[in-house]
Amino acid sequence: MNKKVFRNLSYGVYVVSTLDGTRPTGCTANSVMQITSEPASIAISINHDNYTNGCIARTGTFAVSILSEDSDPGLIGTFGFQSGKDVDKFDGTAHTIRDGMPVLDDCCGYIVCRVIDKMETSTHTVFLGEVTDGDVLETAPAMTYAYYHNVIKGKSPKNAPTYLPEEEAAEPSARWVCSVCGYVYDGEVPFEELPEDYTCPVCRQPKSKFVRK
Q1: Owning domain of residue 200
Q2: Which intervals hold domain Rubredoxin-like (predicted)?
């Protein structure tokens, strides 16, 4: 089976957030879909290994921040390539509490849900949520997963449903790759000549985290 066929399905790029006690936490996700319109409900898919999964199960609520093409790509790295168990991802990240849930300020819209059901798969939990709040925050186009891969040149976190292990082995040789998120530097300036304060545009890791492949 060629798993790349799943990339032809429509995906967005989102930050799913909830609370760890009183502390906000969350993770990057690409599997969010509307299920019904009346009453409005959506489903999200969160990997069992994501700390956010257990927090959603405990609180019974979650929010979806819909990233736009103008959103800072660093948000994807902040929420997608480190664990909320070890890091306060919202520390220094502008956000607003909406209907009790943390929502990123740098997004084009948000949806807040109360969990009404869930389904377990071998690797992910699918949470079904009844929408309790939502709004459009800006008019910039929503970021698609294709835009993330083709324009931002980002990679899928290993916990994402669309992660393809063979892509890591297929990278061309003699390129500088971020060891944290897999971003491949392809700028016109030779990597060695970049300033020492250069950071990965996806996960904001320093230049020292890049390796030559």
Answers
A1: 164-213
A2: 173-213
